[in-house]
């Protein structure tokens, strides 16, 4: 028994006639008959009463019909999930750390889509440890991360060094301590730079592990925070946020990581696009 025989059974049920089912499936009537015989033999039951006037479901056929429809529907959904979208030469799977998507991640993804219109693209957000697992298993082709990911059959390159600036909701110069300062954890490199410049004897009343959440907080409640320049660029242009004058800038290196096996299919990963 296979999905073709089940589709044939449903075509006969829908049309009520072997000839009409054969026309719909673009096969001969003898092929339809052979498929029905094979299906009934596999189930050990007669599903259809066939005559010159047409076909009728038996009790077994009536019971089997909803299961046949579910099988065909499930198979179609499975093909859609794992198959290549029509009109494309390949599928590229991209993973990105949660905090990188709003800035550099989306920019890289959009640039790649514009440069490679023959490919279908999918993007998945994840934490760094999860991305490492996806790369190792082949679940994703490439990823943008806040630190290099080393491992067997993995390659990486520096993508860019992202500027991190202190912004505030009111124009002002740098001060020793802003009581409404929000601390945003932007990774190990940022934590080291921040600790070297700012004393640890003051604790921010609010901390976030995602720059987008911190940005929403600033716009709603006011205050100041360090954010990636790419994340707050539009708000700076609209003067909803302001660069804090005299405040030191930081940066973090972003890495593009991919599986060696993808080099043949996506050679552009090794170079800027």
Description of the molecule:
Helix 1 crosses helix 2 and helix 1 crosses helix 3. This protein starts with a helix and ends in a 14-residue tail after the last strand. With 273 residues, the protein is of the alpha/beta class. The protein contains nine helices and eleven strands. The longest helix is centred in the first third of the chain and has 24 residues. The strands form two sheets. Strands 3, 4, 5, 6, 7, 8, 9, 10 and 11 form a nine-stranded mixed beta sheet that branches. It has a two-stranded antiparallel ribbon with strand order 1-2.
Characterize this entry briefly.
The chain has 273 residues and is of the alpha/beta class. 42% of the residues lie in helices and 25% in strands.
List keywords for this structure.
alpha/beta, 42% helix, elongated
How is the topology of this model organized?
Blueprint: H1 3-15, H2 18-25, H3 29-43, E1 48-51, E2 54-57, H4 59-82, E3 90-97, H5 101-115, E4 119-126, H6 128-137, E5 142-145, E6 154-168, E7 181-184, H7 188-197, E8 206-208, H8 211-221, E9 224-228, H9 229-237, E10 242-243, E11 250-259
Parallel strand pairs: 3-4, 3-5, 7-8, 7-9
Antiparallel strand pairs: 1-2, 5-11, 6-9, 6-10, 6-11
Helix pairs in contact: 1-2, 1-3, 1-4, 2-3
- Main β-sheet: number of strands, strand sense, barrel status? 9 strands, mixed
Name the quaternary structure: single chain
Calculate the terminal CA-CA distance, rounded to whole Å: 49 Å
| Residue windows where pLDDT falls under 50 for at least 5 positions | none
Structural class comes to: alpha/beta
- Report Rg: 30 Å
Estimate what percentage of residues fall within beta strands: 15-25%
By DSSP (H or I, 4+ residues per run), the number of helices equals 9
What overall form do the CA principal axes indicate?
A: elongated
Order of helices and strands: HHHEEHEHEHEEEHEHEHEE
Average predicted local confidence, pLDDT: 89
Please estimate the helix content. Answer: 40-55%
- Count of distinct strands: 11
């Amino acid at each position: 028994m296979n999905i073709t025989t089940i589709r044939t059974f449903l075509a006969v049920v829908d049309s009520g006639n072997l000839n009409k089912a054969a026309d719909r499936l673009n096969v001969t009537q003898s092929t339809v008959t052979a498929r029905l015989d094979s299906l009934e033999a596999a189930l050990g039951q007669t599903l259809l009463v066939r005559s010159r006037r047409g076909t009728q479901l038996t009790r077994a056929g009536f019971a089997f019909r909803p299961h046949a429809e579910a099988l065909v529907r499930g198979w179609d959904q499975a093909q859609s999930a794992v198959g290549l979208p029509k009109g494309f030469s390949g599928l590229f799977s991209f993973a990105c750390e949660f905090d990188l998507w709003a800035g550099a991640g989306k920019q890289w993804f959009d640039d790649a889509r514009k440069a490679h219109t023959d490919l279908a693209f999918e993007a998945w957000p994840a934490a760094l440890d999860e991305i490492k697992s996806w790369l190792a298993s082949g679940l994703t082709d490439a990823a943008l991360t806040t630190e290099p990911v080393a491992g067997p059959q993995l390659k990486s390159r520096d993508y860019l060094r992202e500027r991190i600036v202190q912004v505030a909701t009111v124009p002002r110069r740098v001060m020793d301590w802003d009581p409404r300062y929000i601390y945003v954890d932007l990774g190990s490199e940022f934590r080291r730079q921040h600790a070297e410049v700012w004393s640890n004897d003051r604790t921010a009343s609010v901390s976030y592990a995602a720059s987008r959440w911190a940005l929403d907080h600033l716009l709603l409640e006011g205050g100041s925070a360090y954010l990636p320049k790419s994340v707050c660029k539009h708000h700076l242009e609209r003067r909803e946020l302001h660069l804090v004058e005299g405040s030191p800038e930081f940066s973090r290196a972003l890495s593009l990581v991919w599986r060696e096996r993808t080099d043949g299919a996506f050679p552009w990963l090794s170079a800027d696009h």
